[in-house]
Task: structure prediction
Amino acid sequence: MIYFVLVKTLYVIFSCHSFDCSNPFDP
Result:
């Protein structure tokens, strides 16, 4: 499960370059 958390974290970080970071976990 830890692997999923790491991938999710990276996804959020990279998503912040193109999307609003106010709520990065909101799909």
The two ends are 20 Å apart (CA to CA). The chain has one helix and no strands. The first helix runs from residue 2 to 15.
